[in-house]
Specification:
It is a single chain. The chain is an alpha/beta fold and 242 residues long. It has one domain: 3-Layer(aba) Sandwich (Rossmann fold), CATH 3.40.50. It contains nine helices and eleven strands. The longest helix is centred in the last third of the chain and has 21 residues. It is globular, with a radius of gyration of 18 Å. It comes from Desulfovibrio legallii. This is CobQ/CobB/MinD/ParA nucleotide binding domain-containing protein. Pfam families: CbiA.
Amino acid sequence: MATIHFILQGKGGVGKSMIAVMLYQALRHFGKDVLAYDTDPVNATLASFKEFSVTSLDVMKDGNIEPRKFDVLLEALVTAPEEAHVIVDNGASSFIALGAYLQENDVLALLEEAGHTVFFHSIVTGGQALGDTLHGLSRMCVGFPDSPIVVWLNPYFGDIAVDGKGFEEFKIYENHSRQFHALVVLPQGNKALIGKDLEELFAKRQSFEAGINASSTSIAVKARLRRYWNQILSCVEQAGIC
């Protein structure tokens, strides 16, 4: 049946929606039927990409998150088309609410009964947000101990290391490595070059394909985007999620 990808992280501004955007494109590149739901009540980034098939779900009521509104999402996931890949991009502000909903309503069991495969995705970033993103990942591990988790490591803001120890030497890896289906290290490059290219690409809400093929994109930028895009495709393929 379908494959469901929940992208969750309690810390905002660490590249979560960027992961959703790239995963959507990669799965589509590999010939998958891709659907997506954006439940971020603050920044519906994924839904703003008009090239993609994304449904934006309003989970707010009177300025607060209304858990019952996740019922619409559950209905859509259980009845997802056969062989489809469904991405759920959830905002940092609704991280706890969606996690609680999934647990209280036995959503994973319902999806399993429907024959679907479920992956959780979390992002860990270097720099000041390292501790917060590790905490978010830890909550996911504890809350969904039997579910495979894809950990995206984003060193853009700094090395993912403490006292010279890398992620695979962290306590969280020691305690939960059996849950980690894959570790995906986002490719890095010169921030003034590919970093700026990516910023502009996402600001325009363009896919890699559109950016690379645009007549207004310079030869140098096209080359850098193409190289980065090929690296992302390799990462997703090696992660074994498509």
